[in-house]
Amino acid sequence: MSQTDYLTNRILTEDTVYVQYRKTAKAPNIAQPHTHCGYEIYYFQHGEATYIIGDKVYALKPGDMLLFRGEIVHLVKPSERVPYLRSILNFREDACGSLDALVQKKLAQLFGASGGQIIHWTEEERGQIEHLFFSIAQEARRREVGYQDMMHALLTVLVLRIIRKHEADLVRNRIIRGNGQREANIERTLHILNQKFRNRISLEDVAEQVHLNKHYLCHCFKQVTGLTINQYVTKLRVDEGKRLLLHTNKPVVVIAEEVGVGTAAQFSRMFRQQVGVSPNAYRRGCHVD
């Protein structure tokens, strides 16, 4: 939730697959909760990072791969101490339309988890996975005759490898790598915030529900997410406000109440600080962010 990744949405409107291969630079919205259309395959190759998808917190290691629907709010907090390297594939559901019905069902289940799904590739397996990413990126860059068909074929191979890996890990009962207590505390906190941000919730209420001292909770939340609790809740409220502005005719005063802010003046001030325009200007199509 919060910011919408308009670049990914635009590319997936024009093409069915969007690849970013061995990216090291930080994207402008990397530290902010954001959403986009389609599915995402996020392959972590080097560094240290914490990734949040919905209510789940993942402490990533090289070789980890995250699978999730882009519509789920997500953000990543890479460590500043070491280089950050990842490859990303975003694709529309119809990009794998050639798969048979059973595999399509498995694909939907795999990407359907509310907190995403994680699998881990061994060092021996990573070469093949990285070669598939490289090949897809090469087709996208060269754009030679039939490049879209080649990208779809390579994506299909990657997806099938992922499904087989996931099922093999389930059989071996190795798919879940437990987080520490700190991450578990933040997952509970995220669940509460994502469910109750439309209400008037206080820090004391949240701390009581997760059975933590409020100062310690704030410290852990900032450490894991890179945001304060207030910043995170503000992002959720602004994003819900965007949705209501674009898809309903409700007046700003009603929207303010529904997103848990209170008055129209408070909501307008918060909205302008986050988005760069007033709620009414945003409704008219002035999308600065």
UniProtKB/TrEMBL annotation:
Signal peptide annotation: none
GO molecular function: DNA-binding transcription factor activity; sequence-specific DNA binding
PROSITE patterns given in the database record: HTH_ARAC_FAMILY_1 (PS00041), HTH_ARAC_FAMILY_2 (PS01124)
InterPro entries: AraC-bd, Homeodomain-like_sf, HTH-like, HTH_AraC, HTH_AraC-typ_CS, RmlC-like_jellyroll
SMART domains: HTH_ARAC
Protein name: AraC family transcriptional regulator
Protein source organism: Alicyclobacillus acidoterrestris (strain ATCC 49025 / DSM 3922 / CIP 106132 / NCIMB 13137 / GD3B)
Organismal lineage: Bacteria, Bacillati, Bacillota, Bacilli, Bacillales
